[in-house]
TrEMBL record, chain A:
Keywords: Cell inner membrane, Cell membrane, Membrane, Transmembrane, Transmembrane helix, Transport. It comes from Pseudohoeflea coraliihabitans. It is found in: Cell inner membrane; Cell membrane. Residues 69-259 form the ABC transmembrane type-1 domain. It holds the Pfam family BPD_transp_1. It comes from the Bacteria. PANTHER family: INNER MEMBRANE ABC TRANSPORTER PERMEASE PROTEIN YDCV (PTHR43357). Belongs to the binding-protein-dependent transport system permease family. The chain crosses the membrane at residues 9-35, 76-95, 107-132, 138-161, 182-204, 210-229, 241-259. This is ABC transporter permease subunit. Its main location: membrane. It is a multi-pass membrane protein. The lineage of its organism: Bacteria, Pseudomonadati, Pseudomonadota, Alphaproteobacteria, Hyphomicrobiales.
From TrEMBL, chain B:
The keyword Transmembrane does not apply. It is found in: Cell inner membrane. It comes from Pseudohoeflea coraliihabitans. Keywords: ATP-binding, Cell membrane, Membrane, Nucleotide-binding, Translocase. Its main location: membrane. Residues 4-234 form the ABC transporter domain. Belongs to the ABC transporter superfamily. It is a peripheral membrane protein. The lineage of its organism: Bacteria, Pseudomonadati, Pseudomonadota, Alphaproteobacteria, Hyphomicrobiales. This is ABC transporter ATP-binding protein.
């Protein structure tokens, strides 16, 4: 088989995977979200008989969507910020300080990922009741998400801290830099890609996390995932679920593209290569 | 201009002794090189001088002030790193300006200082560029400029030329020396390259296993090494054991060696009965007619252009000589002369 033919086959396979995994689900979600309530999309039709934004308007006006959007897009950045803040000291210690058992400690920080999120959710819920903090559910969700996704933040930031070059720190000190100037000139350029990546991961995971939002927050706090699961479960309306799915996914894609640009501008070769 | 005084410095990392009782005095405006093989302690000593490492014991004085416990950010030294350590996200201009900003210098003065350094190092056209847009030589010049802009009391170099190719190394070497001289800067330079040390320095400190073997001018080190380590490390040397038989005339010592009896001229008496001696390969003269002539068999010859490297053997004692021109084949017996003043008396045999 020639190289050209092999390339063609691989390209075709990639396109097929993209179609099956991305184009079809997205296409279906878009079509379902635009189905006109007056003309249902029945099984005997390939495409909806009529398209309109009625479902979008209806969801916006008659559901908890506005509150869910505000809640989700407030708690996710807060959870990302809190997770990063909590991860920083641990990542610094594991990335910069040499001590016996460091490699084992690096593995141990990943262990919480094996705990199912429902277990964490139940634990936080019972903790809130025990502490009498049931009125602080929003904060509890933020804190729970930050803790739950801490292993991602720590692991990413450890790698970033390991990328910080000792000679840059020493050069900064040699040139009389005080602590924060050393931080700006030697640490930040190497940490920036890691900070963006950790923020992105925690933000997206937090936006999509159903268990905590449902067990800890309901019924007072509505988040997009709990609304989505309600649409798919107890009051199953497929067009409404499609609208929510798109609302959940589209901002994430935009954020991902935005951070991808930022990551490119923080070219790691600049901070790790010669120079 | 400030001198550096290193007094009885010891440095231990756990059970490993990196430096043992090192003392050294560097005069203001002097260019001193710390030379030695890997692991000899030269970089550790430089880190102690720059303040990144605090010695286990001993003192460092710069300009008459004890700075042993002073951190690098408060020490008036500037270090040129082996890796250049330029901040990759800052332009050349910002790299040069970084230390001046830390000093709290006014904008106008900063600009003037940068222009001055850039002109001196031919960096005017590179000021807006990022370090990764520069060649290795240009990066080295920025690193040097960043240090020079600080106008430190002492300029420190940690093998700054090791990442450059041979031709560029020669150019930058001359440039560093020119700038050091023109500013009369006190400079301490670390290298493992003996050619670099000999070419650049006012004095060279040869280090071995955490100790100072010898401190001398390049010429003195080459022609009058004190130990076989120095003789071997600086250029090529033939080192053999010798027994001192006596003093034939004042300053003329008779020695028994594997090559037979030899005379060596030395104003200082030998340090023991059993010592080591050395001579440089180029010190021998082929077909010599002097009394002190040695006959040995040629085992290998290597043509090097303007001279030929001859490897000889006399009853199991192997050595080499350098001669401008020779008509001899491997296996021939060659006679050469070794003048007494070319033989150097070294340390006692351990």
């Amino acid at each position: 088989m020639s190289q050209q033919r092999l390339n063609d086959i691989l390209l075709f396979a990639l396109l097929a995977v993209c179609v099956v995994w991305l184009v079809i689900p997205f296409g279906m979600a878009i079509l379902w979200s635009l189905v006109d309530p007056a003309a249902p999309w029945t099984a005997d039709r390939l495409l909806p008989p009529a398209l309109s934004f009625s479902r979008w308007i209806d969801m916006w006006q008659n559901s908890s969507l506005k509150a869910a959007l505000i809640n989700s897009y407030t708690q996710a950045p807060l959870a990302a910020a809190l997770s990063l803040s909590l991860a920083f000291p641990t990542a610094y210690a594991l990335g910069r300080i040499r001590f016996p058992g460091r490699e084992i400690a690096k593995l141990l920080v990943l262990l919480p990922l094996v705990v199912p999120s429902y277990v964490t959710a139940v634990f936080f819920s019972s903790l809130l009741f025990q502490l009498g903090l049931t009125g602080w559910k929003f904060g509890a969700i933020v804190f729970a998400h930050a803790v739950l996704f801490l292993p991602y933040s720590i692991r990413i930031l450890i790698v970033s801290f390991e990328q910080v070059r000792d000679d840059h720190i020493e050069a900064a000190r040699d040139l009389g830099a005080v602590f924060w100037r050393r931080w700006y000139v030697a640490y930040l350029p190497a940490l920036r890609p890691g900070i963006f990546a950790a923020t992105l991961i925690v933000f997206i995971k937090s936006i999509e996390m159903f268990a905590i939002a449902f067990i800890v927050g309901s019924p007072d706090i509505v988040m997009i995932p709990s609304l989505l699961f309600a649409s798919l479960g107890q009051d199953y309306v497929r067009p409404n679920a499609a609208v929510l799915s798109l609302i959940l996914v589209v901002p994430n894609i935009l954020l991902m593209l935005f951070l991808e640009r930022l990551l490119k501008s923080a070219n790691p070769s600049l901070s790790s290569g010669k120079g | 201009m400030s001198g550096v005084f290193i007094r009885n410095v010891h440095m231990r990392f756990g059970r490993f002794v990196a430096l043992e009782d090192v003392s050294l005095s560097v005069a203001p405006g002097e260019f001193v090189t710390l030379l030695g093989p890997s692991g000899c302690g030269k970089t550790t000593l430089l880190k102690i001088i720059s303040g990144f490492t605090v010695p286990t014991s001993g003192h460092i004085e710069i300009g008459g002030e004890d700075v042993t416990q002073v951190p690098p950010e408060k020490r008036d030294t500037a270090l040129c790193f082996q890796s250049y350590a330029l901040f990759p996200h800052l332009s050349v201009n910002d790299n040069l300006e970084f230390g001046l900003l830390n000093k709290g210098m006014a904008r106008g003065e900063r600009g003037q200082r940068i222009d001055e350094v850039a002109a001196q190092l031919a960096l005017e056209l590179q000021l807006a560029k990022l370090p990764n847009q520069l060649s290795g030589g240009q990066q080295q010049r920025v690193s040097l400029g960043r240090a020079l802009a600080m106008r430190p009391k002492v300029l420190l170099f940690d093998e700054p030329l090791s990442n450059l190719d041979a031709k560029l190394r020669d150019q930058v070497r001359i440039e560093i020396r020119r700038i050091q001289k023109s500013h009369a800067l006190t400079a301490i330079y670390v290298t493992h390259d003996q050619a670099e040390a000999l070419a650049m320095s006012d004095r060279v400190v040869v280090m071995n296993a955490g100790r100072v073997e010898q401190v001398a001018t390049p010429e003195e080190l080459y022609h009058a090494p004190r130990t076989s380590f120095v003789a071997d490390f600086i250029g090529n040397a033939n080192v053999i054991d010798a027994a001192v038989l006596g003093e034939d005339k004042p300053g003329l010592w008779r020695l028994q060696t594997e090559l037979g009896q030899l005379q060596a001229r030395s104003a200082a008496p030998p340090r023991a009965k059993e010592i080591r001696i050395c001579w440089r390969p180029e010190a021998a003269e082929l077909d010599g007619t002097e009394a002190q002539s040695i006959e040995a068999r040629l085992t290998h010859r290597s043509f090097q252009g303007h001279y030929t490297d001859l490897f000889l053997d006399k009853e199991g004692c192997e050595f080499r000589i350098l001669v401008p021109q020779v008509h001899a084949d491997v296996g021939d017996l060659l006679r050469f002369t070794l003048a007494p003043e070319k033989i150097v008396l070294l340390e006692p045999v351990a």
